[in-house]
Automatic annotation (TrEMBL):
Gene3D superfamilies documented for this protein: Bactericidal permeability-increasing protein, domain 1 (3.15.10.10), Bactericidal permeability-increasing protein, domain 2 (3.15.20.10)
Similarity field: Belongs to the BPI/LBP/Plunc superfamily. BPI/LBP family.
Domain of life the protein comes from: Eukaryota
Molecular-function GO term, any one: lipid binding
Signal sequence range: 1-20
InterPro entries tied to this protein: Bactericidal_perm-incr_a/b_dom, BPI_fold-BPI/LBP, Lipid-bd_serum_glycop_C, Lipid-bd_serum_glycop_N
Protein name as it appears in the record: BPI fold-containing family B member 3
Localization per record: Secreted
Domain Lipid-binding serum glycoprotein C-terminal: 294-492
Major subcellular location class: secreted
């Protein structure tokens, strides 16, 4: 499930550069401040990151306390820990820590103002001879933890939040004092009185103690919260497999930028072959105008060159080549010299009309992806050698065609990838050479379109089934993201909103 509203933008073509363009990147991720806050809050509720640090607790405050967490033996709040000081003074023990509420404020050029609002519940069980309580005390204190956090880059090149300052503000304190009576059989009857009956000196002792202790108690919790955020931000940079073709490695190109509303990550996608070689497809030589971000949404912008690079890798690996024989096409699609003679008899020469045909399709240049009439179009140049053959014999070349396949690309995001599904719009061909007589190759186009549609396009879709990897921004599920193709056209509209 998505944490919030995400927009997946495909930035396809170049704009004429003009003064004031700042974004010149490949993949751009803009994380809305509300989205980051929700991600941290959701991880506190039940995420494995904080559970490993704080353990689990009873029903109401699940995920924060427990025998393996803050209250456990040797834990931050256990006997001998921070609140050992409180126990010595007043017989108090931590009973519960309410799930913190997270709020964020972005500080442009610096980092984040991170606030946690929580409630600390304590109770005293000391007896009159050992404690100034003389009975039972229950206390609940509201606490605001305020911290300033800088945004930087870790040693492994990931964005990281670093705690610079942490302070606590003690809010409303609720106190109830009373008497605990033993009834035998392990049962206890507790008689509570009103707060005003608590002696004022004891109230002052408790208040002063909390002022001293709470910063040491809750600022480490802030470190744990930052650990959550850093895990989520660090997940952006990863090595993602491209099926059997290779992989895409996401790295941080520049320092993260912070505005009032979002954190911007300039992510550089590097496509590698199976052998680990970098596929260096040309990147845009000029700045790209990135469209403005809408309120309360986060964006991931995918550049055109990433798509071109993936198709270039397919071409380099020979995955775009195919030999089409009658076994690969249904019976209603003709693939014999008899059927060819009905279209271009001069191309057969003296060959008998009962031989099978072999179409050897080779892609020697990288395909190109483009935007045309608001549609994603893939253009694949191909050489098509037409041969006659017998299964036990040697193929005999008839003629060669130069062709261009134009395919429509349907785009659909899944949880972590952008998937492409191709359909043939048309195949146009010209005669390159013939071993018999020259002829008008356009007479073959309808027939070739049928063959390519049933035999070649399904193979392409299988090769593309793995999809284009998307960066792991806050581990968000992109399946329900709003997908938009941004057409950046000429000339540049300087001073105007939008692309």
């Amino acid at each position: 499930m998505m944490l919030g509203v995400w927009s997946l933008l495909l930035l396809w073509s170049l704009a004429t550069p003009c003064q004031g363009l700042l974004e010149t990147v490949g993949t751009l991720a803009r994380i809305d401040k509300d989205e980051l806050g929700k991600a941290i809050q959701n991880s506190l509720v039940g995420g494995p990151i904080l559970q490993n640090v704080l353990g689990t607790v009873t029903a109401v405050n699940q995920g924060l306390l427990g025998s393996g967490g803050l209250l456990g033996g040797g834990g931050l709040l256990s006997y001998g820990g921070v609140f050992g000081v409180v126990e010595e003074l007043s017989g108090l023990k931590i009973e519960e820590l309410t799930l913190p509420k997270v709020t964020l404020k972005l500080l442009p050029g610096f980092g984040v103002q991170l606030n946690l609002h929580t409630k600390v519940g304590l109770h005293g069980s000391g007896v009159a001879s050992r404690s100034p309580l003389g009975g039972l005390l229950q206390l609940a204190a509201e606490v605001n933890v305020s911290s300033r956090v800088a945004l930087g880059v870790s040693s492994r090149g990931t964005p990281i939040l670093i705690l610079k300052r942490c302070s606590t503000l003690l809010g409303h304190i609720s106190l109830l004092s009373g008497l605990a009576l033993s009834l035998g059989g392990g049962h206890t009857l507790t008689l509570l009185t009103l707060p005003r009956l608590l002696p004022a000196p004891l109230f002052g002792v408790v208040e002063q103690t909390l002022f001293k202790v709470l910063p040491g108690l809750l600022c480490p919790v802030v470190d744990s919260v930052l650990g959550v955020a850093n895990e989520l931000l660090g997940a952006v940079l990863s090595l993602v497999p491209l099926g059997t073709l290779g992989s895409v490695e996401f790295t941080l190109a520049t320092l993260p930028l912070i505005s009032n509303q979002y954190i911007e990550l300039d992510i550089n996608p590097i496509v590698k072959s199976v052998a680990g070689d970098i596929i260096d497809f040309p990147k845009p030589p000029k700045p790209i105008k990135v469209p403005p971000k809408e309120d309360h949404t986060s964006q991931v912008i995918v550049p055109l060159y990433l798509f071109n690079t993936v198709f270039g890798l397919l071409q380099t690996n020979g995955a775009l080549d195919i030999d089409i024989t009658p076994e690969l096409v249904p019976s209603n699609v003709p693939l014999t010299t008899k059927d060819l003679a009905a279209l271009v008899p001069e191309a057969l020469g003296k060959l008998p009309p009962d031989q099978q045909l072999l179409l050897s399709l080779r892609v020697k240049e990288a395909p190109t992806v483009m935007l045309q009439n608001k549609k994603a179009i893939v253009s694949i140049p191909a050489n098509i050698h037409v041969l006659s053959y017998r299964p036990a014999g040697t193929p005999e070349a008839l003629f060669e065609l130069n062709g261009v396949m134009t395919l429509n690309a349907q785009l659909a995001p899944s949880a972590t990838k952008l998937h492409l599904s191709l359909s043939l719009e048309r195949l146009s061909v010209k005669l390159a050479s013939s071993f018999a007589h020259a002829f008008d190759a356009s007479r073959l186009e309808e027939w070739l379109n049928d063959v390519v549609r049933v035999a070649y396009v399904p193979k392409l879709n299988v090769d593309l089934d793995g999809g284009i990897p998307l960066p792991k921004v806050l581990n968000v599920n992109f399946a329900n993201a709003v997908l938009d193709i941004i057409e950046v056209s000429f000339p540049c509209r300087c001073g105007l909103d939008g692309p």
